[in-house]
Each structure stands twice: as structure tokens, then as C-alpha cells.
Amino acid sequence: MDNAKWTFGLTMMIVGMGGTFLTLWILGLVMDALKNVFPLAAKTPSPEKK
After folding, report:
1. Which comes out higher in pLDDT, residue 12 or 40?
2. How many domains does the chain have?
3. pTM for the complete prediction?
4. Burial letters for 20-41: b for 16+ Cβ neighbours within 10 Å, e otherwise?
5. Which domain holds residue 14?
6. Which of 22, 45, 48, 49 has the maximal Cβ count within 10 Å?
7. Is residue 4, in this structure, part of any structural domain at all?
8. What is the pLDDT of residues 16-40, one digit of tens each?
9. In angstroms, rounded to a whole number, what is the distance separating the alpha carbons of residues 23 and 13?
10. Angle at 46 between CA 44 and CA 49, to 5 degrees
């Protein structure tokens, strides 16, 4: 067994997981920013549905 291959494989796994979590975190920040820019309109009950 070649330890360099195992080391490279583990390094790539850690970098890949870190990149995935970093991307998800950035997407979460973008979604929060968009929620602040475009807030949901308050729902008012329709008078016909009473």
C-alpha cells in the first residue's frame, strides 16, 4: 500500500467536504439577504371567504 495515495485521498475528501459546507453557508447567506430585500407580504383574510 502506498501511503501517498491514502494521504492524497484523505486530503481531497477533507477539502471536498469543506468546500461543500462553505458553498452551503454562502448560499444560506444569499437566501437570508434575499429575504431581507424581498420580504413576504402579510396575508390578509379575504372578506368573501368568511
Report:
1. 12
2. 1
3. 0.69
4. eeeeeeeeeeeeeeeeeeeeee
5. 1-38
6. 22
7. yes
8. 999 999 999 999 999 999 999 999 8
9. 15
10. 140
The Cα 48–Cα 23 span in angstroms is 46
Question: How does DSSP classify residue 38?
Answer: S
48 in a structural domain: no
Cell 475528501 sits at which residue?
13
Task: Compute CA 48 distance to the chain's CA centroid, rounded to the nearest angstrom.
Answer: 40
Question: Considering the domain boundaries, does residue 34 fall inside one?
Answer: yes
pLDDT confidence bin for 9, thresholds 50/70/90 = very high
Number of H helices, E strands in the chain: 1, 0
